[in-house]
Amino acid sequence: MDITPCGRYESIAIRAAIIAFTVSILELKHLRYFIAVAEELHFGRAAERLGIAQPPLSRQIRYLEQYLNAELFQRTSRHVELTPAGKVFWAEAIETLRVAEHARQSAMRADRGELGELSIGFFPAAPLIDPIAATFREFRQLFPTVHLNLHERAFFEGLQDLRNGSLDLCLLRNRTPPPCPEGTELIEILSEDLVVLIYNDHPLAKGEGPVALGDLALEAMIHFSSGQNNALLSQVTQLCREAGFEPRIEQEAGQNSTIVGLVAAGMGISILPPSICQIGKHGTCTRPIQGDGPLRSSAWLVYNAGNRLAQNFADAVRRNAIPSPR
To answer: Which of 10, 32, 129, 323 ranks highest by number of CB atoms within 10 Å?
Structure first.
């Protein structure tokens, strides 16, 4: 449709009017009424299509024209046709309904947890745990339009971010169920038996079966930096103390791969979950540990129970979780 400069101004004016009308007193049904008449070019057929009587339809169209201060239809006793203003309004009305329907669908999808953003905290090595990796794959397949914002977090940092709302959910590693902030719920994902990671030439590498925790009292250990508030380091330290000795942590590292690499280089041993030990296995081996107490480390999900997106992620976790033996 050719629009002259005057026509462009008219289009702008009509667009402004339709937006204002829609926001204030116009119901979407008025646009549907207008579109039906514009497409049928016959009030009787349009009324039948809409399932209403013709007189109310005619009144609504006149009301619309009065509000816009523009004649939308040229009416004669024999036919109905769109005026230039009506043609412009027709295009704008169709676009307005399209946008409104898109907004409705988006709101419904967001309410179902199918649209939006999800902020996820996770502990180092969490993606290496099979049930967690499977959860991420499943969630991305089921909800491809949900954007995942991933943030690596230490234990206490993750809990704090859950409390202040920076995170919607957090994957945590801890020996026991972590304290849940108000409004959150907890799921155990997996429980792993701790093992001792040693380099291949270490004397313990020649043995078989479990290693008594007390036999590690004189070993140089490599573990996470104490400044990270790492729950796994706290657990290992507590287990060693319960076995009657203070761990000789001679080297600290911030990354899982660094710890494994230092063990492979013969710098010491480490007590870790198997999921971490699988990083760069070359030059290392593991043996189970025997102690007086439970030598296990669990992965947990703490999530905002009032967030539909987080609920959907939690459902995926439940489907992939491996319950710990009781």
So the answer is: 129
